[in-house]
Write a structure and sequence with these properties.
- The complex is a heterodimer of chains A (about 290) and B (about 625).
- Chain A has 2 domains: about 35-120 and about 220-290, Up-down Bundle (Four Helix Bundle (Hemerythrin (Met), subunit A)); about 120-215, no CATH class.
- Helices cover about 60% and strands about 10% of the residues of chain A.
- Chain A is built from 9 helices and 5 strands.
- Chain A has helices at about 15-45, 60-85, 90-120, 135, 140-145, 175-180, 220-250, 250-260, 260-290, and strands at about 120-125, 150-155, 170-175, 200-205, 210-215.
- The longest helix of chain A has about 30 residues, at about 90-120.
- By secondary structure, chain B is mostly helical.
- Chain B has helices at about 30-35, 40-70, 80-85, 95-130, 140-160, 180, 195-225, 235-265, 295-325, 335-345, 365-390, 400-415, 420-425, 425-430, 435-465, 470-500, 525-540, 540-555, 610-625; strands at about 280, 285, 465-470, 515-520, 520, 555.
- In chain B, strand 1 (about 280) and strand 2 form a beta hairpin.
- The chains are: A alpha+beta (about 290), B mainly alpha (about 625).
Chain lengths: ~290, ~625
């Protein structure tokens, strides 16, 4: 038994099967990420003043990762074009470049961006205690200027034992510049180049603290969406890399030798998926890094 | 067209990348268990789905005891159930509230996602659609098998959740937050292997299964239609499955997103659905807050409403085939039916918030969703009317499939019409979450869809096995089921209008208004006849089960087209071999050419060429009609 139109096109639709399949799959992916992005919008609109953080992510790193993904979208098209021209060697190199781009993207995410968050802490102050820490929050000036209040002091936690030891009565935070110098107008906007935490330490009494948390998914609705969406996106990148790896390995050269069009079709279909993953990142990047 | 694979080339023609060497060489495991053949997968889905349907129904039969005789020890099986479901479920045969909640949540989940969808969409779709469009198989047979096995894993996880400490999910089949975010947590519960978390995990597999299936169905219908089988010559069943596949494809992913978020809430301490300031068991929750319980409802019902049409559209398709076949008349208004089903598919995406009138979304939002909800009743009524008119003037044969199909019509009608008050938020404020709702949607899904499914099982059984199911036992199955269904669900409308709440553990015993009399019984007392009818209906399924398995080997042998039907699946041998057709079918005409004038037979199959003489007669027809 043979299923028609696996490689050749059906005359009246002008399509081969997998091409229909991948576009349908991408439609469902649009709905999946659409659901997540609409959750982001919903939660962000619901957030109280000061609750939605800004400028916590590393924009240059994110920009570089964006460039890496866009580059990989170019190389995967070149790989496909090389197959169409029946130049397997060129294909092999372009595919390798695509795979490396995907790996670099994941490496930056998993070994640099994500782990950083877990060693950075934020202390949410009780509303009545905010006045006491005005020197770190600068809310008087912000109120005059009509800006959202600051409700959190962020930085490096110097005394980790305070998290578990109830005898320690205060948290010592080596503050981020935004809390170290809260009245500086330069701190009203997030910085493109992130500034490291200062050595200025704030001592915050535990009884003034509503909640202390690292910048993990439990920190806020913002980080919850950040980890969920970038995590799911990362899983898609990983899936794409694995598929490309399969097409790059010698096992797929056999497919090429039997029918080069077959491998070209496979690359086209997985390339479409790859472009979609790229496109999702084009939404993720501004939503989390810039806005 | 390279669909020219004929008998001679069959088995010699090798697919470039495939490893299929024809069905003869496959061993038992590859042929019947890990098969990629759409017919085997369809039957696997069907049998599993029917088993799940009966299991889900059994959960409800247990709950009906508690509702009719609250707090009393369950006779006979009461003392055995703790050995199955855990020691704390039914101490001394008395059902605990937690176990009751588990049963309720799992009844809904299992009936919909493990019972009706697998049978209506996956089983009939897999078995029938490729045959009806003259295709050798689905476009992606391996994906098809993956879909079935993802369903299997999802089902296994759901079943496993009964046996973990604390039992299965208790948050209702809708898993509303924040309740389901915080339930099954804390002492006595495993952080991951608890009912609600397993429910979410199981769902991820079920959604994956549906997505893979939906992609496969749509691609198959677009790409593998036989030569000459144009869109307007497709049997209505194929159209119904086509739209259903789109609903699954586009509605399930937002729920998947919501499920991922709830999973994060439960395992990674996020607060997607938890507002700040939550206090549980007297202690504040250590969470960031900032989430929204309403967000879950929106995402859930964005799936939930299209899902209703996922349940009903395949039944429409089945009933359409059977009505045309047994009234020996073309289906009335084929084009209106097709366009109606397309309009339903579209509108079903913009009615979801009518499940949420009680959340106070505001009058503007409510006005929009009331309008769309009422609009969607138009195509539904067109479809139902077309079915009724199809019967008009036909020479009806009341075969067993036809009995189920005709019973479907008024049952679906009752379910549909009682939904109209619920479309208006002012009326729904009163009826919301009462037994009225239970009655309304069960009339659509139980005597509606499930009757359609039984009709389909009896109708296509000869194609799958080459034998028919027993006519007599089919009727023994049908009549008690029809009567019991109505004894179960009709009184529930009345109970609901009294205000009886759908989630009461004691069946309304403790509530004063349920002491009012309707037709001689109080609202609470009505639970008893309802429960007895449910148990009798359970017994009435026994003839079906026996008939089904017995007829596989011992049913009456029949030819390839026992119902004298017109569509392409009846041109294949029964059971069809791997690859389906002896000669590649070509379609020359529409799907319902019954009782063409001037023909010897009263049915003309789609693959019978149009004769020149017939063409001139057809031209003359409109003139005669004047």
């Amino acid at each position: 038994m043979e299923i028609p139109y696996t490689i050749s096109t059906r005359p009246d639709t002008g399509l081969w099967n997998a091409k229909v399949g991948i576009w349908l799959f991408l439609a469902s992916e649009v709905m999946l990420f659409g659901g997540l992005f609409s959750a982001y919008v919903f939660l962000r609109l619901d957030a109280q003043p000061g609750e939605w953080p800004h400028g916590l992510l590393n924009v240059p790193i994110g920009t570089m990762n964006t460039a890496v993904l866009i580059l990989s979208s170019v190389t995967v098209v070149l790989a496909w074009a090389a197959l169409k021209m029946r130049r397997y060697d060129a294909y092999w190199w372009y595919m390798l470049a695509t795979i490396l781009c995907g790996v670099i993207f994941l490496f930056v995410k998993l070994y640099f961006e994500w782990p950083q968050k877990f060693s950075h802490y934020g202390v949410y102050l009780k509303p009545e205690a905010r006045e006491k820490y005005e020197q770190y929050l600068g809310n008087h000036r912000r109120e005059e200027k009509g800006l959202e209040p600051r409700i959190e002091i962020t930085g490096h936690l110097e005394n980790h034992e305070a998290l578990t030891d109830s005898n320690v009565k205060e948290y010592e935070i080596a503050m981020d510049p935004v809390n170290a110098d809260p009245d500086n107008p330069a701190m009203d906007r997030p910085h493109f180049i992130p500034l490291p935490a200062t050595d200025k330490v704030a001592k915050i009494e535990k009884e003034d603290v509503e909640r202390i948390s690292s910048f993990g998914p439990w920190h806020s609705a913002y980080f919850a969406s950040y980890f969920t969406i970038t995590g799911l996106h990362g899983a898609h990148v990983l899936g794409g890399v694995l598929v490309f790896l399969y097409m790059w390995l010698p096992v797929s050269k056999k497919v090429y030798q039997r029918n080069p069009e077959h491998l070209a079709n496979r690359v086209e279909v997985s390339g479409l998926f790859w472009h979609f993953v790229d496109l999702v990142w084009i939404f993720v990047f501004p939503l989390f890094y810039l806005l | 067209m390279d669909a020219s694979t004929s008998l001679e080339t069959h088995g010699e023609h090798h697919h470039e990348a495939g490893h299929d060497h024809g069905h003869q060489e496959l061993g038992f495991w590859r042929k019947y268990i890990f098969s990629t053949d759409h017919k085997v997968i369809g039957i696997q889905y069907g049998v599993c789905g029917l088993i799940f349907l009966f299991f889900g129904f059994s959960l409800m039969m247990m709950m009906r005891w508690q509702l009719a005789y609250p707090g009393q020890a369950m006779p006979v099986i009461g003392k055995w159930l703790p050995y199955i479901f855990g020691a704390n479920t039914m101490p001394d045969g008395k059902m605990t509230p937690e176990f009751y909640n588990s049963l309720g949540a799992m009844h809904g989940t299992i009936m919909i996602f493990l019972g009706v969808v697998p049978v209506a969409f996956a089983a009939f779709g897999n078995f029938v659609v490729p045959l009806q469009i003259g295709a050798p198989d689905m476009t992606f047979p391996k994906v098809n098998a993956a879909s079935f096995w993802a369903f299997g894993v999802g089902g296994a996880i759901m079943l496993t959740s009964f046996f973990v400490p604390g039992g299965a999910a208790k948050g209702g089949w809708t898993s509303y937050t924040p309740l389901s975010d915080i339930s099954d947590k804390g002492p006595g519960f495993h952080p991951f292997l608890n009912g609600q978390t397993l429910w979410l995990l199981g769902f991820i597999f079920l959604i994956t299964s549906s997505l893979l299936g939906a992609i496969n169905f749509i691609t198959t219908i677009i790409q593998l239609r036989a030569k000459g089988l144009t869109w307007m010559r497709l049997p209505f069943f194929v159209w119904a499955q086509f739209v259903t596949a789109f609903l699954l494809l586009l509605a399930f992913p937002p729920l998947e997103a919501a499920i991922v978020m709830q999973l994060m809430d439960r395992t990674a301490a996020t607060s997607f659905f938890l507002p700040a300031g939550m206090i549980v068991n007297g202690a504040p929750l250590h969470i960031s807050g900032g989430g929204s319980p309403l967000l879950w409802q929106h995402l859930f019902w964005f799936l939930g409403h299209p899902e209703v049409y996922v349940l009903i559209l395949p039944a429409f398709g089945i009933v359409a085939e059977i009505l045309a076949n047994n009234s020996r008349k073309p289906l009335w208004g084929y084009k209106s039916l097709v366009f109606s089903v397309l309009v339903i598919g579209f509108l079903s995406f913009i009615v979801w918030a009518h499940h949420m009138w009680l959340t106070g979304m505001g009058s503007t939002v409510s006005a929009f969703f009331q309008t769309t909800t009422l609009l969607i009743s138009i195509p539904s009524v067109i479809i139902l009317s077309a079915f009724f008119i199809s019967l008009w003037g036909g020479s009806i044969r009341f075969t067993v499939p036809m009995l189920w199909a005709t019973a479907f019509l008024p049952m679906f009608g009752i379910g549909g019409l009682t939904g109209i008050p619920l479309a208006f938020n002012s009326a729904d404020l009163y009826l919301h979450d009462t037994y009225y709702i239970i009655a309304h949607f069960h009339y659509i899904v139980a005597p509606g869809t499930i009757f359609g499914l039984f009709a389909g099982v009896y109708y296509w059984f000869p194609k799958a096995t080459g034998r028919t199911m027993s006519e007599f036992w089919g009727k023994v199955h049908f009549w008690p089921s029809l009567i019991c269904m109505n004894v179960i669900f009709l009184p529930m409308f009345l109970q609901g209008m009294l205000g009886m709440h759908r989630r009461w553990y004691d069946g309304g015993q403790g509530w004063t208004l349920s002491g009012e009399h309707i037709w001689g019984l109080t609202g609470f007392q009505w639970n008893t006849p309802i429960s007895w009818a449910a148990w009798v209906m359970g017994l009435a399924q026994i003839p079906f089960i026996i008939n089904f398995f017995w007829s596989i080997k011992h049913g009456k042998k029949v030819n390839d087209n026992p119902w004298e039907a017109t569509t392409l699946e009846w041109t294949a041998p029964s059971p069809p071999p791997h690859g389906n057709f002896v000669t590649t079918p070509v379609a020359y005409r529409g799907p319902y050419e019954y009782s063409l004038p001037g023909r010897e037979k009263d049915f003309t199959m789609q693959n019978e060429p149009v004769e020149p003489s017939e063409r001139s007669k057809r031209m003359a027809e409109p003139a005669l009609a004047h």
